[in-house]
Design brief:
Blueprint (H helix, E strand, L loop, with lengths): L5 E2 L5 E2 L16 E3 L1 H7 L12 E3 L7 E4 L4 E3 L17 E3 L4 E2 H11 L4 H10 L5 H4 L7 H18 L5
Antiparallel strand pairs: 1-2, 3-4, 4-5, 5-6, 7-8
């Protein structure tokens, strides 16, 4: 439950501590992420206080994944590979249904299209996604899937011989 406050010992509500604006490593602005996401994906979840506001660093070449004013978690601290920070296959795209960039590329090379996006949409509509606890960004993967499809189609088109 993103944005919730935590309860103190005396039962009063204490809001999360303030969230830092920029990643302490790369200096780029982070994206707010739920404590639930961080706790679910950091190997040692006991190092993740619930009363802290966290950000997700989207910078591809930065080792930091999550940061707050009290903690920093790098790629090795996570249970999963962080898709937008990886360069070697398989690069994860959909954490709920286990699709990678390679799956999309392979489909498009073989068939000129892919059904991955439709399959994920059907699963989401069925209520079977868990993005908040499985995806390091804490958000739905469909935007990443759309971009990966566009990139794969472009790469396949570039490798086709020019028609004369």
């Amino acid at each position: 439950m993103s944005g919730c406050c935590s309860t103190t010992k005396d039962g009063t509500c204490s809001p999360p501590t303030s969230m830092p604006e920029v990643c302490p490593s790369c200096g780029k602005k982070g994206k707010a992420v739920a404590v639930l996401t961080v706790k679910s994906l950091v190997r040692d979840h006991t190092r993740v206080p619930a009363s802290v506001a966290y950000s997700f660093c989207r910078t591809a070449d930065c080792e930091v994944v999550y940061f707050s004013d009290q903690a920093v978690f790098n790629k090795p601290d996570l249970k999963v590979r962080v898709g937008n920070k990886e360069t070697a296959d398989p690069i994860p795209l959909c954490y709920c249904f286990d699709y990678s960039r390679e799956d999309i590329r392979r489909d498009i090379e073989a068939n000129g299209k892919t059904s991955v996006q439709d399959e994920i949409k059907a699963e989401v509509q069925g209520g079977f996604c868990a993005c908040e606890v499985k995806n390091p960004s804490g958000t739905c993967c469909l935007g990443d899937i759309t971009r990966a499809i566009q990139e794969a189609k472009k790469r396949v088109a570039e490798t086709l011989p020019a028609s004369r």
